[in-house]
Amino acid sequence: MITGIETAALALAVLPSVISALEHHNDGLTPVKNFFRYKGLIKELVDDLKLQTLLLRNTCEQLLTGVVESDTELAELLDNPTSSSWKREALVSALRKRLQHSYDTFVELGRRLTATLGSLTSKIGLDSDGQPRWVDAKSRK
Q1: pLDDT digits over 71-130, tens only?
Q2: pLDDT at 26
Q3: Distance from C-alpha of 1 to C-alpha of 17, rounded to nearest angstrom
Q4: Cα 28 to chain center, whole Å?
């Protein structure tokens, strides 16, 4: 079973791919009328997701501060959202203690966020590496 903090970590891992895919979404639109219609909407969505990513990262940083042993460990967790360090029993236990009655809600919201992001990545056509399928691999470099 995935823990609440792991779901936050997964969200941190997926959000940059969603942002990148949406930034490159305009590359996949060929009709000019679609480009002009969606360009502003996509930019707004990208900006909103960037803000939400910052807010989630800040929330995780605040939650982990005082729970992890060092700034290095904090940076490692935030910079590597899929790291096995997120699954350490000591971390999960410390977060459960810190969040107390809010822990279950945190876990549920994390699961819902992860499910929503999974659905979004599928709908916008990301491959297993989080890259848009419609953008030529050479143009991503």
Answers
A1: 999 999 999 888 888 889 999 999 999 999 999 998 899 889 888 988 988 888 888 777
A2: 60
A3: 24
A4: 23
SS3 132: strand
Q: Which two tokens stand for residue 89?
A: 């029993």
SS3 label, residue 126: strand
Q: What angle do CA 95, 99, 104 make, to 5 degrees?
A: 95
> CA torsion sign, 34 to 38 to 40 to 46?
negative
Spatial neighbors of 115 by CB under 8 A, at least 6 apart, are: none
Place of tokens 């143009």: 139
Whether the Cβ atoms of residue 132 and residue 30 lie closer than 8 Å to each other: no
Query: In degrees to the nearest 10, what's the CA dihedral of 53, 89, 3, 85?
Result: 40
Cα 141 from Cα 45, distance rounded (Å): 23
Read off the pTM: 0.66
